[in-house]
Amino acid sequence: MTAVQPDEDDEPAVVRTDDEWRAQLSAREFAVLRRGGTERPWSGRYVDTKAAGAYLCRGCGQEVFRARTKFESATGWASFYAPSSAAHVQLRPDASGRFPRIAVRCSACHGHLGHVYGDAPQTPTGDRYSINSAAVRFVPS
Fold first, then answer.
1. Adjacent-strand bridge partners of 104
2. Which residues pair with 117 in a beta bridge?
3. Across residues 25-40, what is the average pLDDT?
4. What pLDDT does 102 receive?
5. Domains identified in the chain and CATH numbers
6. What is the mean pLDDT of the segment spanning 75-88?
7. Closest to 134 (Cα-Cα) out of 49, 23, 59
8. Are 98 and 82 contacting, i.e. CB atoms less than 8 angstroms apart?
9. For the range 81-87, what are the long-range contacts, defined as Cβ-Cβ under 8 Å and sequence gap of 24 or more?
10. Residue 84: other Cβ atoms inside 10 A
11. Which CB contacts under 8 angstroms, 24+ apart, belong to 81-89?
12. How would you class 98 by CB atoms within 10 Å of its CB: exposed for 0-12, middle for 13-18, buried for 19 or more?
């Protein structure tokens, strides 16, 4: 698994006020991307998507995942074994749940995308990036 970056006070490249984010995003998207929420399992629109293409951050449009790294994890969330570029995501400690985990966020706007777990030995990396569909937009190729 890629090393967790320290929770620094770095500024995102894309900065908007909460009102600007709310004007751009649906209530569900805002809750996930800007407040660190999580969709219910099996409720995301991309859980079963199998088409070729790219997944872009819904907040800023930066490419964060490619369909070729998506795999069936049977967890209820869209799962990928690697981001499209390590520079496009940030991994941060997340102690907000019942157990410590690693949050995945967009490096450009700091939008919360989901979490990463090292529990996928069937993949080339051993990682499972569990991504909320509300945090991304799929663009078929």
1. 91, 114
2. 128
3. 97
4. 96
5. 18-140 (2.170.150.20)
6. 97
7. 59
8. no
9. 81/120, 81/123, 81/124, 81/125, 81/126, 81/127, 81/128, 81/129, 82/124, 82/125, 82/127, 82/129, 83/129, 84/54, 84/55, 86/2
10. 19
11. 81/120, 81/123, 81/124, 81/125, 81/126, 81/127, 81/128, 81/129, 82/124, 82/125, 82/127, 82/129, 83/129, 84/54, 84/55, 86/2, 88/62, 88/63, 88/64, 89/64, 89/113
12. exposed
Q: Rounded mean pLDDT of the chain?
A: 94
Q: What is the mean pLDDT of residues 57-81?
A: 97
CA distance to 5, 21, 60, per residue, from 14 (Å): 19, 11, 7
Read off the pTM. Answer: 0.93
The phi, psi pair for 52, rounded to 5°, reads -75, 145
98 pLDDT higher than 90: no
The confidence band for 4, taking pLDDT boundaries of 50, 70 and 90, is: low
- Asked if pLDDT for residue 39 goes beyond 60, the answer is yes
CA-CA-CA-CA torsion for 94, 99, 102, 104, nearest 10 degrees? -70
